Amino acid sequence: MGGELASQHLPFARAGREAAVLTGMLRLEPTHSANTSFLFFLSTRGRGRYTARMSHSDSQPRLRGAVVGTGHLGRHHTRILNQHPEIDFLGAWDADPERLRSICSEYGAPALSSLDAVREADLVVVATPTVAHHEVASKLLEAGCHVMVEKPITQTMQEAEDLISLAEANSKILAVGHVEFYNPAVQASLREAGSVRYMESQRLSPFTARSVDVDVILDLMIHDLQITLAVAGEEPSDIRAVGVNVLTDKVDLCHAWVEFPSGLVANLTASRVSAERIRKLRLFATDSYYSIDYAEQSVQSARLQRAPEGPRIQPHVIEVEKEEPLLAELNAFIRACRGEETPLVDGRTGAAALAAAIAVRESVESR
Fold it and tell me: Given this model, what pLDDT does residue 22 score?
């Protein structure tokens, strides 16, 4: 692939403000230990191991929660928070009153009358279209709410910077909804993988009218970019990509090649015009291999065993305790809001994923 694509060399200074923000977000001694980089990307707020269970301690005060936006993901945030034992769910709000009534009726959740009513919550999930992330999240952070905004964090790096600054100024948690990071198969593999040298992902979906306000890079590939950065623990040195418009006026199919200074290479494919739905991630580490099926929450693994009679490849069993990744993500957010140690995709990590996605898009556009 190397000869086909126009190389987009980074440092990210070439991308102006987008690049400048990424520089400094990924400060880590060069390493490809998945364990080390995994811990780095949990953010400075927490590095503890999490277990995602809806357990409630009577000694912990219940937090007031709310959801803004009841579309594809917002409806599931509403479902989970409405029944969460650690949350007093104030309700959901959506600019579309009919959709709001339908979702709240389906889950027996309160429907809030305005965005102002949402400000009474301690923590809020913002699941609006991306174009509204900055405006809505800004108002809520200024009102003193902890906020988790669905990915991508914002449309631009300037907007992402604004949210990070607001959260810091108001001493509030800003999290970003990169739900695939919380898939138990991903977490199990990251805990075990040693020095990852090569990784590849396939994220393919049939076309739907959902999320056509953004291209496939921000819609789908950004999941794998965030996980790639978590594995790498450093900023990319080279990004090359090709992409095409198929059914929309934005990129619907994209293939990216991402290299890092310490040698890790990531080969990422995302499509929203596929005949079938595929969610796969493969990690090739020193003496070990991991094949992750996101949908099945399963891992197939093998290890190279060195013996006097010669090396042998042996199957390696990785136990995965299945659970809903969105619940794990929300539990991590709730713990962070309580000041507890927890893995969290925070605002800076979400902004780093956005910066990488913008670099992929720029590489596509440069061809």
Answer: 36
Structure tokens at 70: 């009841």
Per-residue pLDDT tens over the stretch 167-207: 999 999 999 999 999 999 999 999 988 899 999 999 999 99
Instruction: State the average pLDDT over residues 257-263.
Output: 96
- Residues 47 and 133: their CA atoms lie apart, in Å, by 27
Q: Which pair of structure tokens corresponds to residue 20?
A: 């400048």
Whether the CB-CB separation of 363 and 16 falls below 8 Å is answered with: no
Name all domains of the chain by residue range, CATH numbers in brackets: 8-44+180-323+346-365 (3.30.360.10), 63-172 (3.40.50.720)
Cross-strand partners of 259: 238, 265
Helix axes 133-142, 157-169, angle to 10 degrees: 10
Going along 136-195, which residue ranges are E strands? 146-150, 174-177
* First vs last C-alpha separation in the chain: 14
Burial class (CB in 10 A: 0-12, 13-18, 19+), 27: exposed
CA atoms within 13 A on the CB side of 55: 6
**Res. 31: pLDDT tops 50:** no
**Residue 32 predicted with pLDDT over 50:** no
